[in-house]
Amino acid sequence: MDTVITSLDAGEFRDRLPEALGVYVDAMGYPPQVIRSRAPAWMEHSHRDGWSGVAAFESPRRRFLGHARGPLVAICYGYRGAPGQWWYEQVARGLGDQGRQLPTDYVELTELHVSPRYQGRGIGTELLRRFLADRTERSVLLSTPEVPEEANGAWRLYRSLGFSDVLRAYRFEGDARPFAVLSRSLPLTQHGGSREQPS
Ligand SMILES: CC(C)(COP(=O)(O)OP(=O)(O)OC[C@H]1O[C@@H](n2cnc3c(N)ncnc32)[C@H](O)[C@@H]1OP(=O)(O)O)[C@@H](O)C(=O)NCCC(=O)NCCS
């Protein structure tokens, strides 16, 4: 099945929220009850300053009508980081313990998930590139669970786009798992993860 990738405005995202949360629990391997518990947070995020999102949809090719937008199969969103946000304060605490500070001008990549059936086709990479292409902040920050040898799709994707370590094995309040916080300066170049070096 073909897919189509498009930006979502916050209203469209809220309309598609149950589907987006469905993709999230499938991708993360969480039980379906998690959809209900995360819905208020995702809804609230969509009202934050600088929210933007990109999604992939199944796109059945219709004779004469071209591509249609079918079920949502991948979601990527984030917003401008700011004091007072839970994630900002958590990361600020981790950095503060090391005498460091959060950058003042960053976008938080909050969620990036591709339905398992659609993984490994470049959709996650394309969603993240499209998401970052429209951002005006000087950098992007995210957190991802630590995994041995950084051996999963998320780590490979972030490393391939040039993300580097901000915090490692960090414990967010209320979650026993260690996380990494990663960042990347913006803008991304068109090809490859790294900024082009002047020759
Ligand atoms: C992380 C995640 C979003 C990546 O999405 P994805 O669509 O599978 O990623 P991509 O297809 O762009 O890249 C994955 C692999 O496909 C390969 N690939 C890229 N473009 C491709 C293409 N056109 N055709 C085939 N394979 C391709 C990449 O090289 C990559 O290979 P690798 O994993 O061996 O390095 C997805 O795996 C996911 O949802 N995981 C679970 C949820 C999760 O961990 N989210 C992040 C939490 S922080």
Please explain how this structure is put together:
The chain has helices spanning about 10-15, 15-30, 35-45, 85-95, 125-135, 155-160, and strands at about 5-10, 50-60, 60, 65, 70-80, 105-115, 140-145, 165-170, 180-185. It is α+β, with helices and mostly antiparallel strands and about 200 residues long. A seven-stranded mixed β-sheet has the order 1-2-5-6-7-9-8, with helices on both faces. Strands 3-4 form a two-stranded antiparallel sheet. Helix 5 (about 125-135) links the parallel strand 6 and strand 7 (about 140-145). Helix 2 (about 15-30) packs across helix 3. It is globular and about 60 Å long. It starts with a strand and ends in a 14-residue tail after the last strand. About 30% of the residues are buried. The structure holds coenzyme A. Coenzyme A binds next to helix 2, strand 6, helix 5 and helix 6. The site of coenzyme A has 17 residues, from helix 2, strand 6, helix 5 and helix 6.
Q: How many independent structural domains?
A: 1
Number of helices: 6
Biggest beta sheet attributes: 7 strands, mixed
N-to-C order of helices and strands: EHHHEEEEHEHEHEE
Query: What's the total count of β strands?
Result: 9
CATH topology: Aminopeptidase
From the helix content, strand content and strand pairing, which structural class follows?
Answer: alpha+beta
Hetero groups: coenzyme A
C-alpha end-to-end distance: 43 Å
Helix content estimate? 25-40%
Q: State the strand order across the main sheet.
A: 1-2-5-6-7-9-8
Rough outline: globular
**Level-2 CATH architecture:** 3-Layer(aba) Sandwich
What is the average per-residue confidence, as pLDDT, rounded to a whole number? 93
Low-confidence stretches: 194-199
* Beta-strand fraction estimate: 25-35%
Domain N-acetyltransferase: 3-187
Organism: Dietzia natronolimnaea
Pfam family, one: Acetyltransf_7
Protein name: GNAT family N-acetyltransferase
